Amino acid sequence: MVVGAGIVGSVVAEEARRRAPTAKILLLDAAQAGSGATRYSAALSTPTGATDAHRRLVRRAERWYAELEGSGGPRRRHLITYWVVPESEVDELREEFVSDPPVPVGPADRVRLSATHPDLVVHPDEVLLRSGGVWAGRAAATAQVLATRLNRTGSSGCWEGVRVDDVQPDGDGQVVLTHTGERLRTRHVVLATGAWLASAAGQLGDAGQLYDAERVGWPLRVKKVAALHLARRPAPDDPVVIFCAEDAFLLPLPEQGLTLFSFYCPTWDVCPGRDLMIEPDELAAARAVLAARSPSLVAAVAGGRAAGDGYLPARLPSVVEDPTRPGVIVAGGCSGSGFQLAPALAESALAGLDRFAKD
Ligand SMILES: Cc1cc2nc3c(=O)[nH]c(=O)nc-3n(C[C@H](O)[C@H](O)[C@H](O)COP(=O)(O)OP(=O)(O)OC[C@H]3O[C@@H](n4cnc5c(N)ncnc54)[C@H](O)[C@@H]3O)c2cc1C
Question: Does ligand 1 come within 6 angstroms of the Cβ of 332?
């Protein structure tokens, strides 16, 4: 059983379905598949990772989503990308690439960039690089496609609108208690409830905690992740622009007729269950970053999006087994990169269950 049908839970369920096609897999979500942070995700994937461990996860994601697309899953948009990077960090950035290392821009790139962003500011101590290997997916659509596949497979399925209130040990398995009073028996449970895994989430008034974060030693906190919508209608082949110093990027969304400006939002300990908005002080800070990079885009700000995501100190997702409930695996801590890193996280979660089954 998998609790939470965001991108992580959906990918866990899909991986389990592929590995054991005859097993009965139940995916449960309090809302609908593709809700939570997944609903708001920019779903950008860059071929970079700060550490070897991170790069392994990135390589895995690349293969997994390519296979999903090959098997009729949502199509990815491959995007030429310009990186605005401080000169002192160029070597470090190059080392982070797992493929398609960046190259300095040429005259044709400058023409292309000035056609899209005529007033783009690149400081004298910064370098402009170009790379391929970057793509944007569709996070909520992916979760929904995977939930649908489950519904069409044997006795497996996705139950939406069903909240799990508790998981209790029961003989050699678990009993999962839902808000409607059902008691569902299962051998294994993967908890993939995103920001709802944070220990503070229960105290913030959301539906109960499904595990005790302190007991499993998981210092998960919830940070707001946010992006502005810019009323700039992109052309289909407009590039992505990544501002390394600000941890921000401009992503064209031609289907929605918008450009997205993703910015670093340092607001912690938000409540995942509430509809989050970009608050005035956060908007002012984001506009200041945008104004320093492309003054003309500030006038194009037309709303935005925000959600809470679970962060772990190493900024990488992780899997932990609940020490008091053998067979319960907790998978999360996506730290703002959960769309990209869900496949590797799902594999670790299932490896955790394999280990448990052998013990
Ligand atoms: C604006 C924005 C931009 C982003 N951009 C990117 C990006 O470019 N690239 C990238 O890789 N990542 C990006 N992310 C981060 C990424 O979207 C998240 O890391 C990822 O969606 C987390 O997925 P999840 O499945 O762990 O959690 P969620 O998507 O939050 O899903 C958790 C699910 O659990 C359900 N749930 C909770 N409690 C219960 C319960 N008790 N019972 C049943 N169900 C429950 C919820 O309803 C929800 O559907 C972005 C996020 C935001 C908000």
Answer: yes
Angle at the Cα of 302 from the Cα atoms of 286 and 256, rounded to 5 degrees: 115
The answer for residues whose C-beta is within 8 angstroms of residue 13's C-beta and 6 or more apart is 2, 5, 25, 27, 146, 147, 150, 156, 158
Tokens for 96, please give them. 């982070």
Q: Residue 102 and residue 251: Cα distance in Å, rounded?
A: 18
pLDDT digits (tens, 9 = 90+) for 326-335: 889 999 999 9
Q: Residue with structure tokens 């940070």?
A: 223
Element (H, E) at 268: none
Specify the fold of 2-358.
FAD/NAD(P)-binding domain (3.50.50)
- Structure-token match 């997916």, residue found: 137
Give SS3 for 74. coil
Residues 224, 228: Cα–Cα separation, whole Å: 13
- Best residue among 138, 230, 334, 340 to mutate for probing ligand 1's pocket (most ligand atoms within 8 Å of CB) is 334
Residues with Cβ < 8 Å from 139, sequence gap 6 or more?
7, 34, 38, 39, 41, 43, 339
> Which of 26, 41, 45 gets mutated to test ligand 1 (max ligand atoms within 8 A of its CB)?
41
* Average pLDDT for 169-194: 94
Q: Give pLDDT, residue 335.
A: 95
Percent over 90 (pLDDT), the chain: 84
How many H-runs (helices) and E-runs (strands) does the chain carry? 9, 18
